[in-house]
Write a structure and sequence with these properties.
By secondary structure, the protein is an alpha/beta fold. The protein is built from 9 helices and 10 strands. The longest helix has 17 residues, at 273-289. It is elongated. Bound molecules: glutamic acid. Glutamic acid is lined by residues 8-10, 42, 186, 200, 204.
Length: 292
C-alpha cells in the first residue's frame, strides 16, 4: 500500500502562516514518498468552529497548489465511528464513565496533597476508575495501562518519551458536553484513512503518547510522526488563530509558500508554484525520506 499522509485543520478560522507550514510539510512528505495526501476537516469541537472556515481553508490550499488526492472528510459526520470505538474500549475494559466535574477533580487532588499548579492541566486522580458509585456519568475516559510510559521516535525531534500516567492520567474520550475528544477522533480517523505518516506542528507533539496508547488499546497499526517547527508571532508565542494571526494572503501564494518553506529549512525557489513545489519535494525527499 502507498504511504498516506494528511493535513487536518480545525476550521476555527482561515489558514495562517503557521498552519501553511504544516499543510506544506505534510503535502511534501506524501509527495516525496510517492504517496497519497488527504485533507480532513477537524470540526468536532463545534463551538470553536467558524461557519465557512472549512470552505475558505480548502480554497487557500488550492491557491497554493495543495489539492487532496481523495475527497475531503469532515469529522462532524463521523460521530458513529467514534461511538463504535468508544463501545469497543468499554467492552474491553479500556474505557470507563466518569462523573467528576472540574471542581471535583481539583478537590480530589487537593485532598491527596497534589493541588494543581496554576496554568497546569489537572492530572486525573482516577476517582471513577473503580466505578461511578451511584453518581451520574458525564464523560468517558481511557483507562491507562499499567505501563503508561510511551517511547516514540519523531523524525525531526528524535527519540521522545512521556509517562502519561504521571503527566495526564486517564484522559477524556468523550467530553461532559457530549463532544468527542480530539485524541479519539484523530486516532480513529487516521486508522480508517490508512494514514501511515503524520506530519503536523510541534505544538501537537505532546498529544502523540496519548494517541499511541489509544492506538494500542484499539489494536490499530502504529504510524510515523514528524513534528515541524512552529511559526512564532512577534510576542514569541506560537502563531495561532486564537492570538489573531493574519489569514494567508491569497494574492501571492508563492510568497506565502516561500516563507513556509524557509521555516522548514527548504531553499528559495524561482519560477511558479508548481516549480517551487517540485523543487521542495526533491529537497524534502533527500532530507527526510532517505532513512525512513
Ligand atoms: N486539528 C488539529 C489542529 O488544527 C491538528 C490535528 C493533527 O494534525 O493531528 O491543530
Amino acid at each position: 500500500m502507498k504511504p498516506r499522509g494528511r493535513f487536518a485543520p480545525s476550521p476555527t478560522g482561515p489558514l495562517h502562516a503557521g498552519s501553511l507550514v504544516a499543510a506544506l510539510a505534510s503535502w511534501l512528505d506524501a509527495r516525496a514518498r510517492g504517496g497519497v495526501w488527504l485533507v480532513r476537516i477537524e470540526d468536532v469541537d463545534t463551538p470553536r468552529c467558524v461557519p465557512g472556515a472549512d470552505g475558505f481553508i480548502l480554497q487557500q490550499l488550492a491557491a497554493c497548489g495543495l489539492t487532496p488526492d481523495e475527497p475531503v472528510s469532515w469529522q462532524s459526520q463521523r460521530g458513529h465511528r467514534y461511538q463504535a470505538a468508544l463501545e469497543r474500549l468499554l467492552s474491553t475494559g479500556s474505557a470507563y464513565p466518569c462523573a467528576c466535574s472540574r471542581s471535583d477533580i481539583e478537590a480530589a487532588l487537593a485532598a491527596a496533597g497534589r493541588p494543581r499548579e496554576r496554568h497546569q492541566a489537572a492530572v486525573y486522580p482516577g476517582t471513577c476508575r473503580p466505578g461511578l458509585q451511584g453518581r451520574q456519568a458525564r464523560a468517558w475516559r481511557l483507562r491507562l495501562p499499567d505501563a503508561a510510559t510511551v517511547h516514540w521516535l519523531d523524525a525531526r525531534l528524535g527519540p521522545q518519551q512521556q509517562d502519561v500516567a504521571a503527566d495526564v492520567g486517564d484522559f477524556v474520550l468523550r467530553r461532559a458536553d457530549g463532544l468527542w475528544a480530539y485524541q479519539l477522533a484523530v486516532v480513529v480517523d487516521d486508522a480508517e484513512q490508512g494514514i501511515s505518516h503524520v506530519v503536523r506542528g510541534a505544538d501537537l507533539a505532546d498529544n502523540t503518547p496519548r494517541q499511541i496508547l489509544l492506538q494500542r488499546a484499539l489494536d490499530l497499526p502504529p504510524v510515523g510522526y514528524h513534528h515541524v517547527p512552529l511559526v512564532l508571532g512577534p510576542n514569541g508565542e506560537k502563531l495561532s488563530k486564537q492570538n489573531g494571526a493574519a489569514a494567508l494572503d491569497l494574492s501571492d501564494p508563492l510568497a506565502a509558500l516561500q516563507s513556509a518553506a524557509s521555516v522548514l529549512g527548504l531553499p528559495p525557489a524561482g519560477g511558479g508554484v508548481a516549480e517551487a513545489l517540485a523543487l521542495w519535494t526533491r529537497a524534502w525527499q533527500a532530507a527526510w525520506c532517505a532513512a525512513t
